[in-house]
């Protein structure tokens, strides 16, 4: 009986610790404080050719926001649905770097970009939160 009680307590604590370690996606503005960290950033996406580098900018919350995802030339094929995500709630995951004062995640894998619409709102999860949990957060991308 005592062993069963200890097992229940340990499994409950482990489940609580796992839930506490799951970090929710952050806003584009908050990404400025996470240089060198692996995070998931959520916002409304827009797509444009980068005017200064060879590649595609995936801005979250507008071209003038504090965050963008950058897809270097040659990696576009990894993101076949990129244009369909424009105007949609999305999550970009990776290690935050900086480019011209903006937080940036360089995107080379489709796993780094997820649409925010998952249909899990009925379970009490926002669509982005549900996607984040489904893909195990940043650790699934950043290793």
Summarize the structure.
This protein is of the alpha+beta class and 143 residues long. Helices cover 22% and strands 29% of the residues.
Describe this structure in words.
This protein has 143 residues and is α+β, with helices and mostly antiparallel strands. It has one domain (24-142): Beta Barrel (OB fold (Dihydrolipoamide Acetyltransferase, E2P)). Helices cover 22% and strands 29% of the residues. It contains three helices and seven strands. The protein has helices spanning 2-21, 127-134, 139-142; strands spanning 38-49, 55-60, 67-72, 89-95, 97-99, 102-106, 113-115. A seven-stranded mixed beta sheet has the order 5-6-3-2-1-4-7. The longest helix is centred in the N-terminal third of the chain and has 20 residues, at 2-21.
How is this fold's topology laid out?
Blueprint: H1 2-21, E1 38-49, E2 55-60, E3 67-72, E4 89-95, E5 97-99, E6 102-106, E7 113-115, H2 127-134, H3 139-142
Task: Give the tally of β-strands.
Answer: 7
Counted by DSSP, the helix tally is 3
Number of structurally distinct domains = 1
- H/E order of the elements? HEEEEEEEHH
Q: Summarize the main sheet.
A: 7 strands, mixed
């Amino acid at each position: 009986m005592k062993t069963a009680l200890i097992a229940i307590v340990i499994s409950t604590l482990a489940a609580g610790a796992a839930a506490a370690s799951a970090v929710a996606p952050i806003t584009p503005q908050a990404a400025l404080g996470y240089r060198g960290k692996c995070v998931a950033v959520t916002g409304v996406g827009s797509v444009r050719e980068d005017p200064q580098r060879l590649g595609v900018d995936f801005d979250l919350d507008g071209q003038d926001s504090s965050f963008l995802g950058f897809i270097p030339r040659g990696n576009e094929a990894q993101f076949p649905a990129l244009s369909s995500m424009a105007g949609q709630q999305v999550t970009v995951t990776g290690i935050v770097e900086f480019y011209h004062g903006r937080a940036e995640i360089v995107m080379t894998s489709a796993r780094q970009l997820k649409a925010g619409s998952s249909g899990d709102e009925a379970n009490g999860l926002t669509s982005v939160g549900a996607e984040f949990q489904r893909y195990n957060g940043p650790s699934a991308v950043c290793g």
